[in-house]
Amino acid sequence: MKNPARVRFAPSPTGHVHLGSARTAMYDYLIAKQSGGQFVLRIEDTDQKRYVKGAEEELMSGLHWLGLDWDEGPDVGGEYGPYRQSERKEIYQKYARQLIEQGDAYYCFCTPERLKEVREKQNQEKQQPRYDRHCRDLSLAEADQRIKEGESHVVRFKTPLTGKTTVHDYVRGDITVDNALLDDYIIVKSDGLALYHLAAVVDDHLMKITHVIRGSEWLPTFPLHGMLHRAFGWQEPVWVHLSVFLKPSGKGKMSKRESADLLKDGKSIFLKDLKTLGYLPEAVNNWIALMGWSLDDHTEFFNLEDLVQHFSLDRLNPSPAAINFSKLDHFNGLHIRNKSVEELATLIKPYFLQNGYEVDDEKLRKIVPIIQERLVTLDDCLPFASFFFKDEVVPEAESLIAKKLTASESLKIAEDVLKILESLPDVSHEAAEQPMRDYIEASGYKAGQVFGLLRTAVTAQEVSPPLFESMEIIGKPTVIRRMEKAVELLRGLSEA
RNA sequence: GCCCCCAUCGUCUAGCGGCCUAGGACGGAGCCCUCUCAAGGCUCAAACAGGGGUUCGAGUCCCCUUGGGGGCACCA
């Protein structure tokens, strides 16, 4: 057994939970669980301006939906709290001051306006936009004095002017950058709250985090985080940068606009949408787990427990992955078929209820086996099985005309079939199929023609679960009633 | 523009110098099964970005080019 890992998922509550976050959270969870360690949820809300109401709740329900339950977090507590960064303001200030006093950071009094001017000038001269280090060499005494006088200030990290910094990413290896190319990043804002860089590093240390798994958008500031740890003299966690998810075309990452368009197609990159669209959390997990990770060259069906057992950082793939929704559909079908009748019945029942149908559980349990392998998403149960719960279904008269036959020929068939069904003790699969096949044999019509007509009459659909199984569930009185209606409709058609 | 990262079928990927006439999956095409639709089974088309090295031998190691992605905020 490995050493217990403490892994944190640290989202900012600024919007909907998307696939990229979900995958990071899952990997966090897997590493924590497989080592017998803790999965920690930490809310990174140091930017109050970007706070979105309800985002935290959505985040938590999204994680729970996927089965990624955390051991420590703002709601459940833990011995390393508080777990919301906005509640840790004083902690960051203390550490920022330490950095300043030991010469690794400094107060900066430059106004946003001046910064903007500097940037514009640099842009004009085609220089790299960067802070000009105007306040870097102010003495601490002078700085403290100006602060006492109430002057607005931020804290910047004092990046070494020369030399190189090497940081180690678990999947990419060593990454080395020239310090001269780095900026003196702001680590505490003028409102006194730390920026991500400082807050995350301090929290990761204080919370004894062993693995930092995050998106590759953090790669550019990765050296800063390494330098911060070293300035404090802290041991660094294992750093793991995951590749980003690209839009289905593979060209760039998903924009807000495109996300909206996607929803019109019944697809989405947001967890909350995926749920209402009828996707199973098991399928979503399976799907995103395999975007950037693989076990071997053939295993592809996983549930969360399998992943806990088999997941390994060693098999992470550093290259970006395009989102492939047809693969999600495939996995969803696989996981739907993997459900027991009881489980699936429970999952699809709400769809019928929401659409105003009264659902008899006994009946539903009979329906599940015949539609299970036909469902791609849970809401597919509606087009497949609604007719079971309707008192009456009335097909279009024209749709009753069997393939390659006339209305009057179809009428003849309908009348014959009705007669046969009436003569049967019941319309169970066993009782009905053979007589129907005998009729087909004797009449010379094609099986497709007769069954097609029967299907349309009984279900008012061209596509349905297997006919005889369906009729058995519907029951003889209703089947007879619907056949009579079909005869009536066809009669009207052949007289016209 | 500058910095960083990445590079195998359309897509997700296996491949860690000889097991590769490059394997699997999704999607596509076809066939079988069949009362429709599925599911399932079988078959086919489909890739090592290009150029230099290193080596007896390169998809696998190194360099360059090209392409793609990410970042350059008092956001995370």
Set down the secondary structure blueprint.
Blueprint: E1 6-9, H1 19-34, E2 38-41, H2 55-66, H3 89-101, E3 105-108, H4 112-124, H5 140-148, E4 154-157, E5 164-169, E6 173-178, E7 186-188, H6 196-206, E8 211-215, H7 222-232, E9 238-242, E10 245-246, H8 256-264, H9 271-276, H10 281-289, H11 304-310, E11 321-322, H12 325-337, H13 341-354, H14 361-371, H15 381-385, H16 407-423, H17 429-443, H18 447-459, H19 467-474, H20 476-495
Parallel strand pairs: 1-2, 8-9, 10-11
Antiparallel strand pairs: 3-4, 4-7, 5-6
Helix pairs in contact: 1-11, 6-7, 10-12, 13-14, 16-17, 16-20, 17-19
The chain binds one RNA strand of 76 nucleotides through helix 4, strand 6, helix 6, strand 11 and helix 12.
Give a concise summary.
This protein is mainly alpha-helical and 496 residues long. Helix content is 47%, strand content 9%.
Structure write-up:
The protein has helices at residues 19-34, 55-66, 89-101, 112-124, 140-148, 196-206, 222-232, 256-264, 271-276, 281-289, 304-310, 325-337, 341-354, 361-371, 381-385, 407-423, 429-443, 447-459, 467-474, 476-495; strands at residues 6-9, 38-41, 105-108, 154-157, 164-169, 173-178, 186-188, 211-215, 238-242, 245-246, 321-322. The chain is mainly alpha-helical. The mean pLDDT is 94. It has 4 domains: 88-242, Rossmann fold (3-Layer(aba) Sandwich); 256-337, Glutamyl-trna Synthetase, Domain 2 (Glutamyl-tRNA Synthetase, domain 2); 341-389, Helicase, Ruva Protein, domain 3, CATH 1.10.8; 397-495, Arc Repressor Mutant, subunit A. The chain has a 3-stranded antiparallel β-sheet. Strands 1-2 form a two-stranded parallel sheet. The chain has a two-stranded antiparallel ribbon with strand order 5-6. The structure holds one RNA strand of 76 nucleotides.
